[in-house]
Every structure is written in structure tokens, then in C-alpha cells.
Amino acid sequence: MNILGVTLARGGSKGVPGKHLRLLGQKPVLAWTVEVARAVLALDDYVVSSDSMEILLCAQRYGASRVVQRPKELAQDTTPTLPALQQVVGWWEDYTGKTADYIVELRATAPFKTVDDVEQVIGRLTRTGADSVIGVVELGDGHPARIKQIVDGRLRDWPGCPEPASGRRQDCQPAAYLRNGSIYAFRRDAVMGPNARIFGHDFSLPYVMPAERSVNIDTELDFALCQVLAERFAR
């Protein structure tokens, strides 16, 4: 059984320029994920893909098993994750002559995942035969029942999702979860087969992570929060 870890680290971020190489605590954002991947014994191999040579050199410096240059056409602002992931898996299979039975995508922009998180996800995937296991975080104040729309200038509940009269977050049921952009693990055919997709598989399981390990760097505010959390998670 071959379990391949992958991190896709494009160099052209617009929301947070240069985010993979920015120092978070004492090391670059990318290094937090590379060091975790390196310590996960269940991963048979680990590849970092990027269009940036600087990012690839950083990945090597912090212990990535392999790096691969991402083709320019798969490194555009509008490029979806799936074709970039498929390119890495295809490259790895051609290069090693092996077939990846499972693929674990570790996203560097969610830096506070742990070795135990990744191992738990892999264990759940391989034990259950699920198509995918995806990291999620429970929504608190962001529960769908608290979402509003403005109709003719008036505030209205979101259609089909009325807010409890109490207005209490605790009364919003059932619990709602958000993909936290940290860990995605798949059976090979879930991302390489004819019905390939990153999420929305028929048999997809959650891995619930706490909010403090689910911060995903999409904005400068996210990065500022990560700077505060970095001291707690320093390793």
C-alpha cells in the first residue's frame, strides 16, 4: 500500500503576497507543514509542488522528500486544485513506477495541523474504505442560521434556515461544519478516476479539528492571527 503526501504551494498569492515564505514564528509558513509531513510515518513519500523555485528550495531545506516544478499553465490564479493535484500524482507514479493507493493533500496555508491529525485522517481513510476524509471545523457564530440577506432594504433570514428566536449560538441546530482547508485525504480513484473531485464524494468522512488548528491564511488578518498562535504551536 502506497500513501503519498502532497503539498501544492503556488507562488503567486494575491490576498497574502508571498505567504508560503513569510516567517511565521521562527520559520516560513510552508515549513510548518513540511516538518509535519516529514514526521508522519504512515506517508510513504511526500512531494511539494510549486511554480516558484524559491518555494521548492525552502521545501527541500526543511526536509521535503521530493519537489516538482509545477507547469505554468497549472499555476494561474484561476487554476483549480484538482488538475494541479493530478499532475503531481501522475508525475510521482511515472517517476517511481509505483501506484499511489491513497493521496493525502496537506495544505500549507493551514499551518497548525499536527502529526497526530494527519495520522488520524490516514487511519480513518484506510480503515473505513471511504472515498475521502476531510478536515473540518465546527462553525460557532458563523452557523448558517445566523446568516441574513437584505431584501428591499430589510433584513431577512436566509431562505430555509431561520434563526432561533433566542438568538443564542448554542440553539442553532444541527451543528454545522466548514472545510478548514488543512487536510484532504483520498482513495486514488476519488481524485484520479473518471468522477474525480476534491470534495463531495459519495462516501466522505469528516475529521473535526479545533478552531485554533483550523486557521487558514487567506487574508492579512488570518496571518496576523497565526502570528499570535505561532507561539503556542511552536515546534
Keywords:
235 residues; 2 domains; 7-stranded mixed sheet; two-stranded antiparallel ribbon
CATH class of the largest domain: Alpha Beta
Summarize the biggest pleated sheet: 7 strands, mixed
Question: What is the name of the CATH topology of the largest domain?
Answer: Spore Coat Polysaccharide Biosynthesis Protein SpsA, Chain A
State the low-pLDDT regions, or none: none
C-alpha end-to-end distance: 30 Å
Class from secondary-structure proportions: alpha/beta
Count of alpha and pi helical runs? 6
Strand content: 15-25%
CATH A-level architecture of the largest domain:
Alpha-Beta Complex
Residues in helix, %: 25-40%
- N-to-C series of helices and strands: EEEHEHEHEHEEEEHEH
Number of strands: 11
Alpha carbon gyration radius: 19 Å
Going across the biggest sheet, name each strand in turn: 5-4-1-6-10-7-11
CATH superfamily of the largest domain: Spore Coat Polysaccharide Biosynthesis Protein SpsA, Chain A
User: Judging from the principal axes of the Cα atoms, what is the shape?
Assistant: globular
Count of the separate structural domains: 2
Question: In short, what is this structure?
Answer:
Helices cover 29% and strands 24% of the residues. The chain has two domains: 3-137 and 177-233, Spore Coat Polysaccharide Biosynthesis Protein SpsA, Chain A; 140-175, no CATH class. It has helices at residues 29-39, 53-61, 81-96, 115-128, 188-192, 220-233, and strands spanning 3-8, 23-24, 27-28, 45-50, 66-69, 102-106, 132-138, 148-151, 154-157, 177-187, 204-208.
